[in-house]
Amino acid sequence: MSYDGAESKKITLSAYKADLGGFVGNTSIHPDLLEIARERLLGFKEEGRVRDFHVMRCGDDMELLMTHYKGCASADIEEMVMNVLSACATRSSELKLYGSLHNLLRGDFSGNVSGLGFGLAEMEFAERESEPVLVFMADKALSGLWNLPLYKIFADPFNTPGLVMEDIMMDGFSFSVFDRKTRETQVFKAPEQLYRLLALIGDSSRYQVSEVRRSRDGELAAVVSTERRQDKTAGSVQSHARGEDPVVLIRCQKGLPAVGEVLEAFTFPYLVEGWMRGAHIGPIMPVPFYEANPTRFDGPPRVISSGFQLSKGLLIGPHDMFDDPAFDQPRREASLVSGYMRRHGPFKPHRLIDQNQ
Ligand code: 13P
Ligand code: MG
């Protein structure tokens, strides 16, 4: 495929997230898996099947970030992803890494990603004159964890002064909210329906913000990954019926929240569901890439942020956004809160009991 005149086409940003087996236990990813993914994707890039790619990881989760002009839900992209994951799964099995997805792949692999259950966040948009995008990845956290920061970023002027300073943002943002119980999605406009929005998304176990758009013109601002996990290996708990370790893609600047306004929401190490066995509550810790290795009680939950400038579909980056001493204090606070929560042992509210209700 030729990319001449690529800038006039809409770009698609696809972020696939998968857990192909932890190293060691649920802590991190073996470097061989990252290497295999990079090699395969480089081959696809050279064949012109993807415009660009980047392989990332947070804890035991790998993310394949790709740009292309094939739109959302492209069968060709899905086929490439399955090819990459199968190769990683084979190596994971050889190394007997602590399993999840590779056990499914090893058995009856039919080549259809949607049945396998891992995360996918995709957005298609016309690339602006300058297109800064932040990709957030979490580990040891269940779906719904992005509700609080997305609210702060797109609806709270105390976090995002741009909401009251930039004309195009003054009509606010529209939040798509997915109800896990009814499987329905409702759209709420902030600030008009702010209290209705908060009434739901405050219950982040049940309601998940799935997408945010600028209200005035419908411009896509943020997309959260959805997960369709079928099963998990023995030893894990029922929490895995919930989507886990999700990803969110956020476009920034010029009519959208600034990069610093987006990051500001993570200065509060708020409590999330996940952590040990996916069955505890703990604070989320914003860390640089090299610190995304949750060990204490398999945690505490982590979030990393990779910053990219898109240039004609090329991913210029990543910049490690939380590699900043300004986040030392939230990290310390997360450590303190971890100790406090741990002292509850098997008691609520540290322990999640009915997390699938
Ligand atoms: P992951 O969801 O990151 O695989 O962790 C599962 C777990 O059981 C941690 O203790
Ligand atoms: Mg994980």
Radius of gyration equals 19 Å
Measured as a percent range, the helix fraction is 10-25%
- The arrangement of helices and strands along the chain is EHEEHHHEEHEEHEEEHEEEEEH
For the largest beta-sheet, the strand count, sense and barrel status come to:
9 strands, mixed
What's the total helix number? Answer: 8
Q: Based on DSSP secondary structure assignment, what is the total number of beta strands? A: 15
* Nearest-integer average pLDDT: 90
Structural class: alpha+beta
Strand content: 25-35%
Number of domains: 2
Low-confidence stretches: 228-241
Q: Can you tell me the overall shape?
A: globular
Q: Which cofactor or ligand species appear? A: 1,3-dihydroxyacetonephosphate, magnesium ion
Between the first and last Cα atoms, what is the distance in angstroms?
47 Å
What does this structure look like?
The protein has 357 residues and is of the alpha+beta class. The protein has two domains: 8-126, Alpha-Beta Plaits (2-Layer Sandwich); 128-357, no CATH class. Helices cover 24% and strands 28% of the residues. Strands 5, 6, 7, 8, 9, 10, 13, 14 and 15 form a nine-stranded mixed β-sheet that branches. Strands 2-3-1-4 form a four-stranded antiparallel β-sheet, with helices on one face. A two-stranded antiparallel sheet has the order 11-12. A hairpin with a 2-residue loop joins strand 14 (302-311) and strand 15. Helix 1 (31-46) packs antiparallel against helix 2 (75-95) and helix 2 crosses helix 3. The chain is globular, with a radius of gyration of 19 Å. The N and C termini lie far apart (47 Å). Residues 228-241 have low confidence and may be disordered.
